[in-house]
Amino acid sequence: MNNNIQSEINKIEIPEGLSRRTELGVQKAKTEMSSKTKKRKLLAAPAIAAAIALSVAGSVLFLENTPGNPEVQNIPASYAFDVTDQKQLVGWADNVFIGKVQETKGTSNEDGILETQYEVEVAENIKGQLNGRITVNQQGGYEGNKLVLVENDQLLKEGESYLFVSRQNKKHGWHTIVPAYGDILIENEKQKEELISIYKAAYDNEVPFE
Predict the structure, then answer these.
(1) What's the pLDDT tens digit per position in 80-111?
(2) N or C terminus of the chain with fewer C-beta within 10 Å?
(3) Distance CA 25, CA 115 (A)
(4) 111 and 1 Cβ atoms separated by less than 8 Å
């Protein structure tokens, strides 16, 4: 994990085994898009091929199809603070906001971490000043016929609105959310108002992350 990603998610630990599997997933995606010559390069130099795949897609590998009945792998996470305490959670975040998922943009894999990016329309800010459409980054995603989830955090759904708790990845301009606690599905207007009230109060009494 590089310093930018690590600073965003505050040393969330991903098992070592995930690295090799995601590398193989990148190889497969690149192989399907490439010519026979590029396929030979993939097999000869998987690490280089992964870097090329990320570069070609602007650090994003786009998924044309997702499996209908994937094998689900749940990866546990450890946190550097109490994520169940909204005051600490908001204190860690750069932004807390309500947003609607417009579309899935693709997946990326950096240093063995599978992540999925989404275009999100910001509806209301609780902390920070985001506007228009932004890219929200979520740990986890599809890898071949496997669905990798972090802390059983279900992938975001297009057309749904969420309360997001995120920290900015300055390298890519993404807003990375906290697994399981940084994307709360909004089911109705009453719940939305309750969440806004809770997280505004947490922001007023936030505990800054150190």
Answers:
(1) 889 999 999 999 999 999 999 999 999 998 77
(2) C
(3) 12
(4) yes
The model's pTM is: 0.69
Burial class (CB in 10 A: 0-12, 13-18, 19+), 173: exposed
**Rounded to whole angstroms, how far apart are CA atoms 163 and 112?**
27
pLDDT, tens only, 127-180: 999 999 999 999 999 988 999 999 999 999 999 999 999 999 999 999 999 999
Map out the domains of the chain with their CATH numbers: 3-204 (2.40.50.120)
CA distance 3 to 92: 16
| Non-local CB neighbours of 59 within 8 Å, separated by 6+ positions | 108, 110, 172
Question: Which SS3 state, helix, strand or coil, does residue 162 take?
Answer: strand
Give the per-residue pLDDT at 65.
59
Question: Could you give the CA distance from residue 60 to residue 30 in angstroms, rounded to a whole number?
Answer: 12
Name the residue among 98, 106, 111 with its Cα closest to residue 3.
Answer: 111
Q: Which of 104, 18, 22, 27 is nearest to 63 (CA)?
A: 104
Residue in 181, 158, 126, 200 with CA at minimum distance from that of residue 12? 181
Which regions of the chain does DSSP assign to beta strands (E)?
A: 71-75, 95-110, 113-127, 133-143, 146-150, 161-169, 174-177, 183-185
Rounded to whole angstroms, how far apart are CA atoms 195 and 202? Answer: 10
Q: How far apart are CA 72 and CA 148, in angstroms?
A: 6
